[in-house]
Write a structure and sequence with these properties.
This protein starts with a helix and ends with a strand. The chain has about 180 residues and is mainly beta. The protein has one domain: Immunoglobulin-like. The strands form three sheets. Strands 1, 2, 3, 6, 8 and 10 form a six-stranded antiparallel sheet that branches. Strands 7-9-4-12 form a four-stranded antiparallel sheet, with no helix packed on it. Strands 5-11 form a two-stranded antiparallel ribbon. About 10% of the residues lie in helices and about 35% in strands.
């Protein structure tokens, strides 16, 4: 029995004397330097410039009832909560036509919009209700939730009535996404 105990102790001692594999460690700090980021695009072309909308008034009923656009979907990507505002590029439509002097059509009396779909997590003043667009910037969607695919859909309505001569009347609608 002493032999076995002595043999076991010798084996254990021999294992302790065997050289261990050398190791080394290296450490590197990794910083993520994040900045606040936000963008707004039209989903149809993944661009900040949407396709031109043409409202063709061809009949008396078009003038009497106005025209409505097809739905226009937009997407916001933001790493913080956000608001969306809207305005026209100027108070009056730009006129191209033969009437002289050029007629002045006030945008706020003619151009309306409503939100028909809201997947931003925020709340809106124009949910399925038309409101006018004019040259003053105003928030219509508030407290959208940060994310990479926050989208909403807009529909436009135009009602120029019978007071204006034939021609092309143009304005840009400007949407601005602002982080909170």
């Amino acid at each position: 029995m002493k032999k076995y105990l002595l043999l076991t102790l010798m084996i254990v001692a021999a294992q302790k004397l065997v050289a261990q594999t050398p190791t080394g460690d290296a450490t590197q700090t990794t910083n993520l330097n994040l900045t606040n980021a936000i963008d707004i695009t039209f989903t149809a072309n993944a661009s900040a410039t949407g396709a031109t909308l043409n409202f063709n008034f061809n009949t008396v009923n078009d003038y009497a009832n106005g025209l409505e656009s097809a739905p226009v979907q937009m997407k916001v990507r933001s790493n913080r909560r956000f608001n969306i505002s809207v305005k026209s590029s100027s108070a009056y439509f730009t006129y191209a036509g033969s009437a002289s002097p050029a007629p002045q059509m006030y945008v706020g009396n003619v151009l309306y919009f409503k939100m028909t779909q809201n997947n931003t997590g925020g709340w809106s003043l124009v949910n399925n209700r038309y409101d006018y667009i004019d040259h003053y910037n105003w928030n219509f969607l508030m407290n959208g939730i940060n994310g990479g695919n926050q989208n909403f859909t807009i529909v436009y309505r135009v009602t120029p009535g019978f007071a204006y001569p034939a021609g092309t009347y143009t304005t840009d609608v400007v949407y601005t996404a602002t982080q909170q």
